[in-house]
Fold:
Amino acid sequence: MRRAVVLSVLLSCSVASAQTAAPILTTPVMSAPAMGVPVLGERFAGAFDVSFKPFANAKVLEPNAAGGIARLTRDDKKWVLAFNRVELTADTPVRDISGPPPQPGYLTITINKLRGGDPNADVLRNEVIDLGDLPVGVMVATTTAGNQPALLQQAIMQVTPQLYYTLTMTSPVDPCKVGDSPAAQEAAMMFKAMLDSIERVDRSSTKLDQDDRLYRTRGLFAQWNKTKILNVLVPERYLRFKREGKDVGYAFIVEQPADALPKPGQGNVLPPDPANSSGFRIGVRTHTVGDAGKELDVESWMYVNFDRRHEVWSNVTIQKDPTAKVEKDQSTWFSEVGASDQQRERVFDRNLKHDDFKEADQKDAPQTFREVDKYHLVVRNEGRSAVADPIRRELPPFYLPQALGVMLPRIVPLDNYTGYLFATYASDNRQIMLRYVDVQPEAPVKLDGQEIRAIGVAEHIGIAGSVTTHYVTRRGQYLGSLNADTKLEILPSDKATLEGIWKTLDFTPPAKKN
Structure:
């Protein structure tokens, strides 16, 4: 039975509440008929473990935080609703556990984080409710959003001990008149209605599909040996970017057998015998032009061993904005360096028993440690004015190194129309995300205004991510790529064609200059 939720609000300023227990309202100040019944929009659902109905007339925007799924806004009410996914590294209950040892629940952790970021935040209500089989922590507080007082209402939904979804609504409020504010009461009633609309989604079929994909992916890894990769490397490639028939950029790509990334000042030094190289590297130089003449130049290098146990990559981005009012903002840069390593390590196993042995040289003595493969990723980001803390992640065995990701359309089997699943590092989100790949049967497709027949290799980040389809012939020749959402078309080209389109070109192999 779904439990009704009544949001409590203070009648006085937070200063007074710090001195005495402030009275709370268990019912809204204004009656529902006077304020109007909350009107909800269409259910917000997708490849998520929960769904809900947001406020009506919501405008859906891109998320602006790591783990964000979407932001929904109502400009007339100045409401903002953030829907996020949170993956924890250890089991964490939503409720506090008294112990021993005591363990704070995720609701308490969230409250402490709020107070740490805003010492003036005043938590008006916090409790854990059960929406069917979905435990939900509810927090209501007055805080600041963009240096303005705001009412923050948050639902923290526990799907598993390590997987949470959060629904956070912020709205303008006078912290001294929360209980007397019709706007605050309207926001409270709206959030209650949204909270009551939350439903858990049965994703058992999705899980079965993912398991099947992962099984095929492990088999695919076994096929990607040194011979296979060396046979598909292309020394130089040129790509042309078009959007709705207009040229918007180009790319120059080099692919080489190698033992490491190019060293600063040494250029592209290659091993004397490619057959004896330990891996391969891919260098990419891209130039794109956006709205109002904004330009983006990206220089990337990616290296990986043939056994995928070690990789390193670097990206350097230069962004030019001639419309910026401040001269220093007309050109900026940022860089990213990442590395992943898979190593054999000894770890403690509490399930293995240790006995005192009279003979220390007993070869069959049980041990308390066992050997496992540890797969780690470290990424460092730096900008013109700041250096971010390194990102450290443990990787699953189906992690896809950056260089292999560039080659995907050419190294997946084209005679087996099926799907695969990889884990990949997404620079935009600074997170490890799932990358879905599907090989599609040969069919007619329109590329660069011409209809051709091609096999499609479709991929997207996240189960509901934007799909880019790469088209190849039966023999694996690359014909182009298309993203229907962004209307971006990527076509194979040559140096002479691009020189006829762009006034200034840079076709030197990517390499650090300092």
Notes: The CA atoms of residues 243 and 486 lie 8 Å apart. Residues 1-34, 354-363 have pLDDT under 50 and may be disordered. The longest helix spans residues 204-223.
